[in-house]
């Protein structure tokens, strides 16, 4: 069952699972069944990629089945992320293969495609009652050393995977952020039909920063 906490409201109707996807910091350490993990990452396989390269690679650290890897990933993260991420059922590193397999030329879209695949698995996770929280606050060189990631591959994201828990489990500042209403920019701020907007037509004042 999808997580129904703090869902988004839009002026146009979209798939409910998209409104339910969020990036929580409160997690339970409930184990994630192996078949659920496989279902989530199978969803990543459905994502589009340049030349069908599928340049994404994922390193999974599961608290219950691969705790050493979990701790390695946790140790690569900035301390402010470790505080809450340590409670997630799993931590994951998203890695991009930087060159095409068919000709070894640079794949300038590899990181974009890792992002597409991760967004796709996030939706599948949401549908299954899990959530992911993607982070930039980590040290790629630590991950490269800890997992012997070879040249030609680059860690581009770390994210939690797990069952969301109560916001009351978080320290006050994080709890307040967890419970704050979620907002998104209106279409007028990012959808420009026909041409780039003139300064007079821009509406960046409409968003909640």
Give, in order, the helices and strands: HHEHHEHEHEH
> What is the topology, as strand order, of the major beta sheet?
1-2-4-3
Strand content: 5-15%
CATH class membership: Alpha Beta
Overall domain count? 1
What does the largest sheet look like? 4 strands, antiparallel
The CATH superfamily appears as NADH Oxidase
How far apart lie the N and C ends?
31 Å
How would you describe this protein?
The protein is α+β, with helices and mostly antiparallel strands. The protein has a single domain, classed as NADH Oxidase (3-Layer(aba) Sandwich). The protein is 33% helix and 14% strand. It is built from 7 helices and 4 strands. It has helices at residues 16-20, 34-45, 67-76, 79-85, 110-127, 140-147, 172-179; strands at residues 56-62, 90-97, 131-135, 153-162. Strands 1-2-4-3 form a 4-stranded antiparallel sheet, sandwiched between helices. Helix 2 (34-45) crosses helix 5 and helix 3 (67-76) packs antiparallel against helix 6. The longest helix is centred in the middle third of the chain and has 18 residues, at 110-127. The two termini are 31 Å apart.
